[in-house]
Design a protein that fits this description.
Belongs to the methylmalonyl-CoA mutase family. The protein has helices at 14-28, 94-106, 127-133, 152-165, 181-188, 195-212, 224-228, 233-253, 258-263, 275-295, 323-337, 357-372, 387-410, 413-418, 421-438, 490-506, 520-535, 550-560, 574-586, 603-609, 621-632; strands at residues 8-9, 38-40, 44-46, 49-50, 84-89, 111-116, 144-148, 175-179, 190-191, 216-222, 265-271, 307-311, 342-344, 478-479, 511-516, 540-545, 564-568, 592-596, 613-615. The two termini are 27 Å apart. 45% of the residues lie in helices and 13% in strands.
Length: 635
């Protein structure tokens, strides 16, 4: 689980800042001040200290409820009832999903978010299915949000027909019908009728809901496909606004004025693990959308973004999934502070399969505790006035605006998707992020850091059906390669999967004999680090502490039967012990010898003695573990 470095925002007199800078320069001992800066994805840079002067001549942000809505769209923030606790459902079976909805509504959930589709959602194929799904939902007071995998207009029709059957007033309906053609294109790779035809088809629904259902928004801009595929916060923000721009233009051509389009739009963002940048992203989203709608001639009321936030799928792990509870809590907290109108906390087991009642209970209770016990709904815009967050919001907005202009130069979001530009950017982003993950500069608790080889596996029913046909099959006016979801933990979890197969086939995991040199005090820190690193690849460390001499060490290692031996201890002992012990071990057939730590000037001598590899902080641990798997015959 990644952490955002701590940065301080404080009001200091100029003399205090200057004095602080002199002390910092002294402590740096010649290192540049820029060494204290932290780089964020998306080209952003965090300073070690933020003061009022960082705001420059810019005026203070408008209060909450005033355009451009950086501080929220409501004058009192979330203090009037709080945000909407909204649970998401994607169980394929209608009856199973309906029962989950019933239980959750009885126990604190206030809104229902339905993912619909044949492969990754609820299989609602007609109005009768939708009616069964919503049997326990009082539509007159419960917001319902649709996110359809393939045909949003058909799904919206089902919902409206259920409202008619249950004699629910159209005026009382709340939520979103989920018309998001570019979201469908990005997720499935196909838009059957083309974009302008989708706009033409959506126009009557927009008109009717604007007149008869003011609490029901027809259009959705969801960033799920981009966030799940690895987008940075800057890219997710920019592509959401670019999609909104595309909808404003296309629907105007279909006869819907920008004012009505803006008032019919709902945005949905994923919230990842970088706490402060995610807060800034949501605040910047409202700022940028307000500017776009204002430039389109929209009124201040139309400029107010309706914003849903969902805890990110990419940050969740299959291994040690209990840590996902902490990840989701942090992400939900960021969504609240960022001012989301409604929030979905994903179940901790979503990366494994279909959630059970326990995981859904933990998910909804996460928000209930944040609201009712932590009282996060009692402060209007808790982030407001923080020089750090205000500046980060502006930086995020500027970076996203630059990306938006680049997308516009390509011809808009549709062109960027179909031409493969979005996929290219995502591939570059994922490659750069994977480098940080592989070296553990971006650690994943429970997976690449502090893995538990003895954890009891959490088993869930698989989410995808083997019989479901691909959504993108058949002819389509617009087609592209669907964006592929990724998770931060994917690479290391593949190594753990291979270790599990080895355990099942041989009765034990791949092992490493840890030859810890010197006293316990001398070798403990390094030995623990190495054991943790090996376990990240599913390699079980077998510890032995201290040896009388090289002969005893070689004898004990031979008796262990371990092919992989890791020599670990204080650097001062290495010149004497490593060449001699390695030479003795290499006389034993098939022995792989690794040394813990950087070899420095001794590398040539150690390799000449037969050392195969060195394991150290900052190296490509994934590559090292993958190589060891191959040498140890781990499939």
């Amino acid at each position: 689980m990644s952490q955002t470095p701590l940065h301080i925002a404080q009001d200091f007199p100029a003399t205090s800042v200057e004095e602080w800078r002199r002390l910092v320069d002294k402590d740096l001992k010649g290192k540049p001040f820029t060494s204290l800066q932290s780089a964020l994805e998306g080209g952003l840079t965090l300073q070690p200290l933020y003061t009022r002067e960082d705001a420059g001549p810019a005026a203070a942000p408008e209060p909450p409820g005033v355009a451009p809505f950086v501080r929220g769209t409501n004058a009192l923030g979330l203090t009037e009832g709080g945000w909407l606790v909204c649970q998401e459902y994607s169980e394929p079976d209608v009856a199973t999903a309906a029962e989950a909805i019933r239980v959750d509504l009885e126990r604190g959930v206030l809104g229902v978010w339905l993912r619909l589709g044949e492969t990754q959602g609820i299989r609602v194929r007609n109005t009768a299915d939708m009616e069964r799904l919503l049997a326990s939902v009082p539509l007159s007071r419960t917001p319902v949000y649709l996110e359809s995998e393939e045909d949003p207009t058909l799904s919206a029709t089902f919902l409206l027909q259920v409202a008619d059957r249950t004699r629910t007033s159209q005026e009382a309906l709340q939520g979103c019908l989920g018309l998001d053609p570019l979201g469908v294109l990005a997720r499935t790779g196909a838009l059957r009728s083309g974009l302008q035809a989708a706009f033409t088809e959506a126009a009557p629904l927009i008109t009717s809901t604007r007149k008869g259902s003011p609490g029901l928004r027809a259009l959705l801009v969801s960033t799920r496909a981009y966030a799940d595929a690895g987008a940075t916060s800057v890219h997710e923000l920019a592509w959401a606004i670019a999609t909104g721009v595309e909808y404003l233009r296309g629907l105007e051509r279909a006869g819907i004025p920008p004012e009505d389009v803006a008032r019919s739009l709902q945005f949905s963002f994923s919230v990842g693990s970088q706490f402060f940048p995610e807060i800034a992203k949501l605040r910047a989203a409202r700022l940028l959308w307000s500017k776009v709608v204002a430039a389109s001639g929209g009124s201040p009321e139309a400029q107010a973004m309706v914003l849903h936030a969902r805890t990110a799928a990419a940050t969740k792990s299959r291994r040690d999934p209990w840590v996902n509870m902490l990840r989701s809590t942090s992400e939900s907290f960021a969504a609240v502070v960022g001012g989301a109108d409604s929030i979905t906390t994903s179940p901790f087991d979503e990366a494994i399969g279909l959630p059970d009642e326990f995981s859904r209970r933990i998910a909804r209770n996460t928000q209930l505790i944040l609201r009712d016990e932590s009282s996060l709904n009692r402060v209007a815009d808790p982030a407001g006035g923080s020089h750090y967050i205000e500046q980060l919001t502006r930086d995020m907005a500027r970076a996203a605006w630059t990306e938006l202009r680049r997308i516009e130069a390509l011809g808009g979001m549709t062109a960027a998707l179909v031409q493969g530009d979005i996929a290219r950017v995502l591939a570059e982003t994922v490659a750069a992020r994977n480098k940080s993950i592989r070296t553990r500069r971006l650690p994943i608790v429970g997976v690449s850091e502090f893995p538990n080889l003895d954890e009891q596996a959490v088993s869930r029913t698989s989410r995808a059906s083997e019989t479901a046909s691909p959504v993108s099959a058949g002819p389509a006016e617009l087609r592209m390669t669907p964006l592929r979801p990724v998770r931060l933990a994917d690479a290391f979890e593949l190594l753990r999967d291979a270790s599990d197969r080895h355990l099942a086939a041989h009765g034990h995991r791949p092992r490493a004999f840890m030859a810890n040199l010197g006293t316990v005090a001398e070798h403990t820190a390094r030995a623990m680090w190495i054991a943790n690193a090996l376990a990240a690849g599913g390699i079980e460390p077998v510890q032995h502490h201290g040896f009388a001499d090289v002969a005893q060490a070689a004898s004990l290692i031979a008796a262990s039967g371990a092919r992989l031996v890791v020599l670990s201890g204080p650097d001062a002992m290495y010149p004497e012990w490593v060449p001699a012990l390695t030479a003795a071990l290499k006389q034993q057939s098939g022995r792989i010898v690794a040394v813990a730590g950087r070899p420095g000037e001794h590398e040539a001598a150690f390799r000449a003695a037969g050392v195969d590899l060195f394991i150290y902080a900052g190296g490509d641990l994934f590559e090292t573990l993958s190589s060891l798997h191959k040498q140890l015959g781990v499939s």
